[in-house]
Specification:
single chain, globular
C-alpha cells in the first residue's frame, strides 16, 4: 500500500523556512497529511509549538531535526556531470526522528545539549560571511540578518538582507554569485560526521534518514554501503527533488540493504513555489517505528 499521509521533512521560521510553525501545520493538514515532522536545521526549539499545532488540526506530530554533517564521501565527478550539477553540497544532511520522545526526559535534554553547538556555530560563521561581504563592498548589518532568523541563522537570511540592500534581486542570485558553496563569501563551519550524528540520535532513542541523496553526487551502490557502515537507518528516497527513476532506484537499493525509506516535501515556503505534503511512499518500507501509524491507516480504510 502507498500513502501520501506522511510528510517527514519541513522547515519553519525557526530555521530557514518562510512560515511560522502554526502556518506550516495548517498547510500540511490542508494537504491531507496525517503524520508530520518539523525538521528545522540544527534546532529543536519548534517541537512544543509544532506538537500543539499538529494536535489542533488533527495530525500526529513526529519530533524531527535536520542535522548538518560533514560529507561522508567525496563526490563522483561523473555522477555530478550526469546530474548537471556544478558541484556537490559541502555538507550532508541527516534527518533524525524521535516518535516517542518525552520533551521533559533526560534523552531530550541530552540530545538538545549535543545539538546546541551546531546551532551556535552558525553565529561566528555568519559574522565572518558578513565581514567578507563588507570587504567586497556590500556591507550589511549583522543584527539585521540574525533578526530575520528564528533560532538557526543561515545563508537564506543573509540573502534576504542582500536583497533588501539592493545588492541582488533574488535569493538565488545571492547564492549563485556570492554565498553559495564555493562562492566568494561562502565559509564552511565545523560539522559532525554522519556516524557521530547517528550515534547521538540513537543514544537519545531516535532513528535517522539520509536527506535528499541526489545532492551528494554519489553512485547509489556506494551511497547505500556507506550508510549501512555509518549506522544510518533509512534513506529519504522520496524527496521532491528526485525524479521518479531515481526514487525507484534508491527505494530498491535501500530495501535490498535492509534500510528503511522515508519521504519529504522539504517544504520551506510558498515563496519557493513549493507545496507541502503529497509525497507518496510505500508503507511496507517505512521505518518500523512508524508501524503503529501505518496500521492505523490500514484500519481507517476498512471502517
Amino acid at each position: 500500500m502507498w500513502t501520501e499521509a506522511f510528510d517527514l521533512h519541513s522547515h519553519s521560521t525557526n530555521s530557514d523556512g518562510e512560515h511560522s510553525v502554526a502556518e506550516v501545520a495548517k498547510m500540511m493538514a490542508d494537504s491531507k497529511v496525517k503524520f508530520w515532522s518539523l525538521t528545522d536545521h540544527d534546532t529543536i526549539s519548534g517541537w512544543p509549538s509544532a506538537k500543539s499545532a499538529a494536535e489542533s488540526v488533527g495530525m500526529r506530530f513526529i519530533p524531527g531535526v535536520e542535522i548538518t554533517c560533514a560529507p561522508g564521501l567525496e563526490a563522483d565527478f561523473g555522477v555530478m556531470k550526469s546530474r548537471q550539477r556544478d558541484r556537490a553540497s559541502d555538507s550532508w544532511h541527516l534527518l533524525a526522528y524521535f516518535p516517542e520522545m518525552d520533551f521533559s526526559s533526560p534523552q531530550h535534554d541530552g540530545f538538545e545539549a549535543w545539538l546546541a553547538p551546531l546551532g551556535q556555530g552558525r553565529i561566528p560563521r555568519m559574522k565572518a560571511m558578513v565581514g567578507r561581504l563588507s570587504e567586497l563592498g556590500m556591507p550589511v548589518d549583522f543584527d539585521a540578518v540574525v533578526a530575520r532568523a528564528g533560532d538557526s541563522v543561515g545563508r537564506p537570511h543573509l540573502a534576504d538582507e542582500m536583497m533588501a540592500a539592493g545588492y541582488v534581486d533574488t535569493r538565488q542570485q545571492a547564492f549563485d554569485e556570492w554565498i553559495g558553496d564555493g562562492k566568494p563569501v561562502h565559509i564552511t563551519r565545523p560539522k559532525p560526521s554522519i556516524a557521530e550524528a547517528c550515534k547521538a540520535v540513537h543514544d537519545a532513542g531516535g532513528f535517522t534518514s539520509l536527506a535528499h541523496p541526489l545532492y551528494y553526487c554519489i553512485e547509489t551502490a556506494e551511497l547505500i554501503a556507506f550508510c549501512v557502515d555509518a549506522g544510518v537507518d533509512a534513506i529519504e528516497c522520496f524527496h521532491r527533488s528526485h525524479t521518479d527513476s531515481y526514487r525507484y532506484e534508491l527505494w530498491f537499493a535501500a530495501k535490498n540493504a535492509g534500510l528503511g525509506v522515508t519521504c519529504g516535501s522539504d517544504f520551506h515556503g510558498r515563496m519557493y513555489n513549493q507545496a507541502p505534503g503529497r509525497m507518496a511512499v510505500p508503507c511496507s518500507t517505512l521505518p518500523s517505528a512508524f508501524n503503529e501509524m501505518t496500521q492505523s491507516l490500514v484500519e481507517s480504510m476498512h471502517q
